[in-house]
């Protein structure tokens, strides 16, 4: 049985994962409208992955005697200035999600909720992979540049990155 404190924290995490789902979806749509098909494909895949994360937490809450709540999605941004801005925003978002996951892990220790602590370890590993991935993409953007040839090359590189991470037992195709 979940404590109310942990149930509330997990429901807040559901909201973060849902927001990330639509955040990536909006970015994918922007990329596709800019003819960045590789980047769009990658971001659509990440949107699906974030949705899977949300469902994973949703099911866990309900399976452990809690009540998962459907989140309200607010203010999804739909326009971006550049591919670099997109990936900087993604890294900021992922860092915030990591902090939230870490806060839940701390609560689990405090509450001696070892089942939820075990459940959250998957998210700890997943967030580490996400941070590494997006830092590497930003490194490539700096290395390759953002002139027309650079954007073309970046789009191809990003399109080749496989989405999946810890959920599929491997890396992100790095």
Account of the 3D structure:
- The protein has 174 residues and is an all-alpha fold.
- The protein has one domain: Ferritin, CATH 1.20.1260.
- It contains 5 helices and no strands.
- Helix 3 packs antiparallel against helix 4.
- The longest helix has 31 residues.
- The termini are far apart.
Tally of DSSP helical segments:
5
Number of strands: 0
And the CATH topology?
A: Ferritin
- What is the CATH-assigned architecture? Up-down Bundle
- Give the helix level as a range of percent: over 70%
> Nearest-angstrom radius of gyration?
17 Å
SSE topology string: HHHHH
Hey, roughly how much beta strand do the residues contain? under 5%
SS-derived structural category: mainly alpha
Uncertain runs: 165-174
Distance between the termini: 39 Å
> What is the CATH superfamily classification?
Ferritin, core subunit, four-helix bundle
Q: How many separate domains make up the residues?
A: 1
Entry summary:
The chain has helices at residues 4-33, 37-63, 83-111, 114-144, 148-160.
Draw up the topology in text:
Blueprint: H1 4-33, H2 37-63, H3 83-111, H4 114-144, H5 148-160
Helix pairs in contact: 1-2, 1-3, 2-5, 3-4, 4-5
What brief labels describe this structure?
174 residues; mainly alpha; Ferritin; 5 helices; elongated; disordered C terminus
């Amino acid at each position: 049985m979940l404590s109310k404190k942990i149930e509330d924290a997990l429901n807040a995490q559901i909201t973060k994962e849902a927001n990330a789902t639509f955040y990536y979806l909006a970015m994918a749509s922007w990329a596709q409208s800019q003819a960045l098909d590789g980047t769009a494909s990658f971001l659509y895949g990440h949107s699906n992955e974030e949705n899977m994360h949300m469902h994973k937490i949703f099911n866990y809450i309900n399976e452990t005697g809690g009540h998962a709540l459907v989140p309200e999605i607010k203010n999804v941004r739909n326009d971006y200035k550049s591919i670099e801005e997109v990936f900087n925003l993604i890294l900021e978002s992922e860092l915030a999600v990591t902090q939230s996951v870490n806060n839940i892990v701390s609560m689990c220790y405090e509450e001696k909720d070892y089942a939820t602590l075990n459940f959250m370890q998957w998210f700890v590993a997943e967030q580490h992979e996400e941070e590494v991935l997006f830092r590497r993409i930003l490194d490539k953007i700096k290395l390759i540049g953002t002139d027309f040839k650079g954007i073309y090359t970046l789009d191809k590189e990003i399109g080749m990155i496989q989405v999946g991470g810890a959920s599929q037992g491997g890396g992100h195709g790095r």
